[in-house]
């Protein structure tokens, strides 16, 4: 259509040159084609720049929202061009008092001093996390148990002892990694976490991960894996593969407590952690 209109316009212009202004000039395809070119010496007018065009320094403000090619605002958490810590930070509510914290100690102190949900009132000790704050591997479980609540440290009971053995089997010391849980307070009688408890504690975990900046995450147990991946799957469907957690590789396997009850899961867990070690070595050797 564009070529046809251009040819028609050329014919009419030719006829006007021969016979005068007897024929109307067909309208241009758009306003920009019909508008005369401005003089090089003429000052710019408001119409020289489209009203929707961004100023030259629009990209220099880090607080400016990001937009895709179609003009839709991009959720920072879903923007793969951002580094993982920034994407994960975007998941934390803006009114969270710990959102701008610079250290794990600040976040831990906030959590220890505040009650976010009723189980925080009943705890003996908050169970924030333990390990190397510069660890490349973060291990995340579901919630503290009785032993963890007593000592204020995750994975210190029989399940924790088994986790230490699993780590040792793939050449990790407990001090080499960082260990935490979705919930930082023990649910009564070790029941499954409630949705409101997860909603209250999960942003705290997001802040931990953003500050830790791990290269890979291992979740143990179905609740931990499904919570971080926002899924509702069986553990058999979560394990034996790598998932993406806002730019960080994530793997899932069985909780050590489950292995104490079901020995048939020890072999698949061994396969999972060997795969984890291989991927860890790849990631840490890249830099």
Pattern of helices and strands: HHHHHEEHHEHEHHEEHH
Instruction: Please identify, by name, the CATH architecture of the largest domain.
Output: 3-Layer(aba) Sandwich
Annotation field: number of helices: 12
| CATH-defined superfamily of the largest domain | Uracil-DNA glycosylase-like domain
Q: How is the biggest beta sheet arranged?
A: 6 strands, mixed
In spatial order, strands of the major sheet run 1-3-2-4-6-5
The CATH topology assignment of the largest domain is Uracil-DNA Glycosylase, subunit E
Q: How far from one another are the termini?
A: 55 Å
Mean pLDDT: 84
Count of structural domains: 2
Q: What value does the Rg take, in angstroms? A: 30 Å
- What structural class is derived from the secondary structure elements? alpha/beta
CATH class of the largest domain: Alpha Beta
How much β-strand is present in the residues?
5-15%
Would you count the extended β strands for me? 6
Structural shape: globular
Domain Uracil-DNA glycosylase-like: 128-274
Region (Disordered): 20-85
InterPro entries: UDG_Type-4/5 (IPR051536), Ura-DNA_glyco_family4 (IPR005273), Uracil-DNA_glycosylase-like (IPR005122), Uracil-DNA_glycosylase-like_sf (IPR036895)
Protein name: Type-4 uracil-DNA glycosylase
